[in-house]
Specification:
37% helix, single chain
Amino acid sequence: MKRKITKAIFPVAGQGTRFLPATKSIPKEIMTLVDRPLVQYAIDEARAAGIKEFIFVTSRGKGALEDYFDEAPELERSLRKKGKADLLSELKSTNMESGAIAYIRQHQAMGLGHAVWCARRLIGDEPFAVLLPDDVISAQKPCLQQMVEAYEETGGSMVAAMQVSSKDASSYGMLDIEKEQGPLVSIKGMVEKPPLGQEPSNLAVIGRYILTPSVMQNLTKIKRGAVDEIQLTDAIAQEIDQGRDVYGYQFSGQRFDCGSKAGFLQATVAFGLERDDLHDEFSEFLTDLKISQSAARALKLGA
């Protein structure tokens, strides 16, 4: 019988250098996308998929991230006194039950595989999920929930997959596909950041994983790979070499790379327009902005 996925690892130890100087004092994961921090989107997705235990792999300077999930009794009292029930409910949804969340330090930046390996003692012999908060996915049914439902049919390890262009493939772990059945593909190999033109397919791994405990055992033995880091994809590829099933899941939804400035801005616009309380005003602003930019460009060309 396949064990349910109830534990998830959130690797959040990165320095967020692409967002300096903001990340000098603010962990990237609590930078706000509209009015919620990036990490809250990942937490909500994990909860929807049935996750009960949340393991954060952190580093120095992430204290504000830990505080975010704590209770704020003074603020709660203030909102209750002012009768702001909606805001109070929103605030309480960010709290985590005692014992449901754990923090582990990654003392050296040695790659995603090493970050996941740091949580090995809390995972034990159970299957687990990994969510990268930089990857924010807009979907009717949350991405990890889609994967968990597929996992209940297949077992094995599973990675979220999406199509990318050949010029972008060198930035991803790429899948070597054996067979495709609807959104599910069985995998015969994985290549981390292949050189331009040498990718085995156009399907790239993005930041959602369901992994068996044997992946942790692989990480214990694995050596540094691409960009001199311990790569999670290398440990998953070993599962295939050892005769275990690994699948790619082509999820339904739109992924935003909020680890980049352009992706963060794109997500802000997309999520802002989805909000009923913001859509009309924001849409009008964007339309006016486009008109004014077009007019300015026409004046410049005519000068």
